[in-house]
Amino acid sequence: MKTKICSALLALMALPLSAQFGIGINTTNPQASLDINGTVKIRSTPAAPSLPGYQILAVNQNTNGDFQVAQVNPQLIVNSAISQINATTGVSTSAYAARKSSGTTLVDLGVLPNGFRPVNFVTAERTLGTTAVFSDTDNAYVVPSNGVYAVKFSFRYGTGLQAYLLSSSPGVAVLRNRIGTYTLIDAKSFDGANLGSLNLTVSNESTDNLYTFQAGDRISFGLTSASVLDPGLISASVTSFHIHKVSN
């Protein structure tokens, strides 16, 4: 009887000691309150109604991480995924935008399709992006990597409304220079209307489309049939563009 009582007392005394060192499953040397050396099965869990307020459990497999489980904010995973996508596709470095509200001129680069002349955009006028993707030499956006790009270009000639019809149907256009081959990839003429005794031209137009580009393509934004336009009105014009990569 005394032997049984002593055994029971020894067992009770050992409980706090075991709890202090932790519980080990498939390990004789637990390194945490619960140290499992093996796989874990969870048969069922309640579904979270929404993400806010919840944390994700992750295993630390870094050097000296010792496989400890830690809680991770879901936003960190989202941010990491976005950063990885941007690094892989070049999306973040491709974004560029610029705007001019005065001092606008059209650059004469020689004979180009449909009398196209690019706007004298320069990097100092950028509203978004890095100077690495724009060239002041030919006023062109330089495509950083192959892929599909979203491009929008707007131009308001003068006040945007002229009390006469413009000859030769000038309008906005986007030009691609691929290793010396120039191609108008988009163009829209200013709209004109003959209302009997009144002629009008709506000289406020834009293009907005998706295009497939190759790395090194040079994209310019300007006007077609530019020679018929008044330099004074061009100087007072407002124009802008933005471009960014959307996929490979």
Give the N-to-C terminal Cα separation.
81 Å
What fraction of the residues are assigned to beta strands by DSSP?
35-45%
Topology, number of strands:
16
Shape: elongated
Low confidence ranges: none
Order of helices and strands: HEEEEHHEEEEEEEEEEEHE
CATH topology of the domain at 94-247: Jelly Rolls
CATH class of the domain at 94-247: Mainly Beta
What is the count of helical runs?
A: 4
Strand count, sense and barrel status of the largest sheet are: 6 strands, antiparallel
Characterize the quaternary organization of these chains.
single chain
Mean pLDDT level: 81
Compute the CA-based radius of gyration. 33 Å
- What is the structural class? alpha+beta
Spatial strand order of the main sheet: 7-5-16-10-14-13
CATH architecture of the domain at 94-247: Sandwich
Helical content band: 10-25%
List keywords for this structure.
248 residues, alpha+beta, Jelly Rolls, 6-stranded antiparallel β-sheet, 4 helices, 16 strands
Descriptive overview:
- With 248 residues, the chain is of the alpha+beta class.
- It has a domain at 94-247: Jelly Rolls (Sandwich), CATH 2.60.120.40.
- The chain is built from four helices and 16 strands.
- Strands 7-5-16-10-14-13 form a six-stranded antiparallel beta sheet. Strands 6, 8, 9, 11, 12 and 15 form a six-stranded antiparallel beta sheet that branches.
- It is elongated, with a radius of gyration of 33 Å.
Would you kindly provide a brief summary of this structure?
The chain has 248 residues and is of the alpha+beta class. It has helices at 2-21, 74-89, 91-94, 231-235, and strands at residues 23-25, 34-36, 56-59, 69-72, 96-100, 117-118, 126-128, 134-135, 140-142, 147-162, 171-178, 181-189, 191-195, 198-213, 218-224, 238-247.
